[in-house]
Design brief:
Helices cover 43% and strands 18% of the residues. It is of the alpha/beta class.
Length: 341
């Protein structure tokens, strides 16, 4: 018998709803918020207001695209955290109300676990799933982690950033260059035509498997400050090379630790997840590592890399199988869940 899960994602500035039939995606609708562009970053209060405007139309569109009635939904899964509390409250409140009115189970999902479990979505272009245990590098605007995934909900973080995340480093570097928000994808875009070794930036020397990106941001800031004193048009004249060099440095930092983790654990199945996993440089570096080190790599589709509700629904599906349901009294959390610490 098929199981239909409605997933709701509202952790930051994208309102998303998806419907899964078991592990197959029937719909995955995302409403982006353009209001943040002029501020150069997400404004929490504006994000929560936009979620309130978007959530009902997005869920209605997801149900219609999936061609199912709301009465067919077996459970509703939602992002409990981490994320912006105001945004999370919109999604969790709607999920609670929907579950209560339809008398179906309510399932809470950790956002970072969901990014990893996106690898278990099945569709025409993502048919092969990693086998346990596997390593997963989860990289986004708020998190950078190396995780040993032992089972669907048995995950151990063996490395993480001690300050800024890789996605934040991309966006801040873009902001320093006066590129519009979100700047990470633009660095990827412009960098495709540039020389990745044109410019050098400081790489942190952090012990073991942890990351740091604050020093890199400072290195980029000071480098551009000095160059602009000599040539006010330096950024425009060297945009492609700058973007390529910044991307090359960040990807190199990420891959060094991931390779070390694979060496230390002996695990050859390696995945990436999170918004930065959409970066073309990181994807190529993973494929190169597969050729060089004999890894079996797993790279999610772009649509399942960035924040989306399909990943929430797949996590909800496996929790549904375990009868792992949430209480109506639960509240969202802004910081990383202890479940994945």
């Amino acid at each position: 018998m098929n199981t239909y899960i409605l997933g709701i994602e509202s952790s930051c500035d994208d309102t998303s709803a998806a419907v899964l039939c078991d592990t197959k995606v029937l719909s995955n609708i995302i409403a982006n918020q353009q209001v943040h562009e002029k501020y150069g970053g997400v404004v929490p209060e504006l994000a929560s207001r936009a979620h309130q405007q978007n959530i009902i139309p997005v869920i209605d569109a997801a149900l219609k695209e999936a061609k199912i009635d709301k009465k067919q939904v077996d459970a509703v899964a939602f992002t409990r955290g981490p994320g912006l509390l105001g945004s999370l409250l919109v999604g969790s409140s709607f999920a609670k109300a929907f579950a209560l009115s339809m008398q179906i189970p309510l399932i809470e999902v950790d956002h970072m676990q969901a990014h990893i479990l996106a690898h278990f979505i099945t569709d025409e272009r993502q048919l092969q799933n990693p086998q346990f245990p596997f390593l997963c590098l989860t990289v986004s605007g708020g998190h950078t982690q190396i995780v040993i995934v032992k089972d669907y909900f048995d995950m151990e973080i063996i490395g993480k950033t001690i300050d800024d995340a890789a996605g934040e480093a991309f966006d801040k570097a873009a902001k320093i260059m006066s590129l519009p928000y979100p700047g990470g994808p633009l660095i990827d875009k412009y960098g495709k035509d540039g020389n990745p070794t044109a410019f050098s930036f400081a790489e942190p020397k952090i012990p073991e498997l942890d990351y740091s990106f604050s020093g890199l941001k400072t290195s980029i800031l000071y480098f551009l400050r000095d160059q602009l004193k000599e040539n006010p048009d330096f950024i425009n004249e060297n945009k492609s090379d700058l973007c390529a060099s910044i991307q090359h440095t960040i990807v190199n930092i990420l891959m060094k630790k991931l390779k070390l983790a694979a060496e230390q654990t002996g695990i050859k199945q390696v995945a990436i997840a999170g918004g930065v996993s959409a970066n073309s440089g990181l994807r190529k570096a993973m494929q190169d590592a597969a050729d060089e080190l004999g890894w079996q790599v797993f790279i999610p589709k772009i649509s399942y890399s960035t924040d989306n509700a399909a990943m929430i629904a797949i996590a909800g599906y496996y929790k549904f199988l375990n009868q792992d349901f949430a209480a109506q009294k639960m509240t969202p959390y802004a910081r990383q869940s202890s479940k994945t610490q």
